[in-house]
Specification:
The chain has no helices and eight strands. The chain is an all-beta fold and about 100 residues long.
């Protein structure tokens, strides 16, 4: 798609900002121990991608938010606990959808 402004100058074209789902996985954790899993996202890194987790299914008392961390080597690490505060002992269980979005 191409869009021109009122002055006739090209504002948006096929080379403008785009994004796409580069990888998607189901991530499942079980048990009460702190764990992590690593997933492949070729061509993705911290400067061109984001990783998000979306809950699927019904929540239980132990279904808390997993945490995703995009890496610079084309991988994403998903934790079943919040890594920013070592005092938090809660862990998450259940399944969530990992989506890696790459932008141009």
């Amino acid at each position: 798609m191409r869009i021109w402004g009122a002055d006739g100058a090209l504002q948006l074209d096929e080379n403008s900002f785009t994004m796409r789902a580069a990888a998607t996985y189901l991530v499942t954790f079980a048990g009460s121990a702190k764990q992590s899993q690593t997933f492949s996202a070729p061509g993705c890194n911290t400067t061109n991608s984001v990783a998000i987790l979306v809950p699927i299914g019904a929540y239980s008392d132990n279904a808390r938010q997993h945490e995703a961390a995009m890496q610079d080597n084309g991988t994403v690490i998903v934790y079943n606990y919040m890594t920013g505060n070592s005092a938090v002992m809660n862990v998450s269980s259940g399944t969530m959808r990992l989506i890696v979005v790459r932008f141009k």
